[in-house]
Amino acid sequence: xxxxxxxxxxxxxxxxxxxxxxxxxxxxxxxxxxxxxxxxxxxxxxxxxxxxxxxxxxxxxxxxxxxxxxxxxxxxxxxxxxxxxxxxxxxxxxxxxxxxxxxxxxxxxxxxxxxxxxxxxxxxxxxxxxxxxxxxxxxxxxxxxxxxxxxxxxxxxxxxxxxxxxxxxxxxxxxxxxxxxxxxxxxxxxxxxxxxxxxxxxxxxxxxxxxxxxxxxxxxxxxxxxxxxxxxxxxxxxxxxxxxxxxxxxxxxxxxxxxxxxxxxxxxxxxxxxxxxxxxxxxxx
Length: 285
Known about the structure:
Blueprint: H1 2-25, H2 61-64, H3 67-73, H4 82-90, E1 92-93, E2 102-110, E3 115-124, H5 134-148, E4 193-194, E5 210-211, E6 218-228, E7 231-242, E8 245-255, E9 260-261, H6 264-283
Antiparallel strand pairs: 1-2, 2-3, 3-8, 4-9, 5-6, 6-7, 7-8
């Protein structure tokens, strides 16, 4: 009888020891520990997480550009053939592996005299660097593009690392800014200005590569000219940053007439106008 009286007490003591061991291994879940160890760079880690950006989605690019705008930028599209015009205006979506992070669309108009290309690209920047927000990472990437394009007075982003010789300076010479030959000749129209094949791009400072102050948080326009054996082409690019999103509008015109160069004023004006539409439509809030 005496042995039976001690058996329950021994069992209770054993259970109490086991409970204490389990409580210690649980890491104090009852005290708000969360039950998971934070990974490096995640919220709760000592390094700190990257602050999420303002924008969490991107627009559908091919349907986002207005048809009236496309008709202005691709003059003569369809030439009365509405079915052909509809096909060309639909554009072709860029191939990307994550449409939540990057999307784009391309349009191409070919004529007997040459071709025009137009593209729009949206990139939502996500930082994987502890302590660097999505927006600051986007500033770094924007500044890298502005520096590579030699845009005068493009102020470096506070978080961007200065590289030797990378500070913005004066506009380079025309020969230094000559673009590599493209895929082929493209369209010329009544807006082009007569120039010789050896002539430099417009010296008008209002049309030189420069910072733009009416787009997003940061913006610039670049303008390059190239003369090849098959003709001449001008490439205009407008890049702007809206918080953690980078937007690029690329617009070029080729002509087989080497005595006429596509107009900077025409191409820049249309590319700049499209960029303002994109900025106001998706990032204006």
